[in-house]
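Ticket #4471: structure export looks truncated?
Reporter: QA, pipeline team
Priority: medium

Steps to reproduce: submit the single chain below to the structure queue and open the exported record.
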Amino acid sequence: MTAAVETVTTTAGEDATRALGERLGAALRAGDVVLLSGDLGSGKTRLAQGIGRGLGCPGPVTSPTFVLVNEHVGRERLFHADLYRIAGADDLSELGLWEEAERGVLVVEWPDRAAGHLPAATLTVEITVDGAEQRTFRLRAGDDRGRELLAALDFA
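Actual output as written to the record:
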């Protein structure tokens, strides 16, 4: 059994959170799944916006809270899902998230709403609010690809 790999980093402000996401997005490729957890207002969407920039997606990356999944085209397709409003895992069968994960990068906000019913995570990112502007990001590798990404990002 391979030991879990994780890294912790912080940001101070929305621009720094987007920059972290951009750095991550630049390293992502089709098939990668990133799960974003954190309280309301913790920075999940700001991180996803940066991931979109890193993937070369033009235009704004906005929260798909009411449509559940937005697709953005860049170097890789970005499928940005927000599961905050789903009633339960049964709602996921209509979304086809598993297929999206194969066609591009899948970023999921509020993955706990469908625990056990999502594609395997490449990275899980837990965001904690540490004040008005500061956020702590705990990035945990979910598989070999996740470990490869963390090593490439080199937060040391």
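Status: closed, not a bug. The export was complete when the record was re-opened. Leaving a note from the reviewer for reference: The chain has a mean pLDDT of 87.
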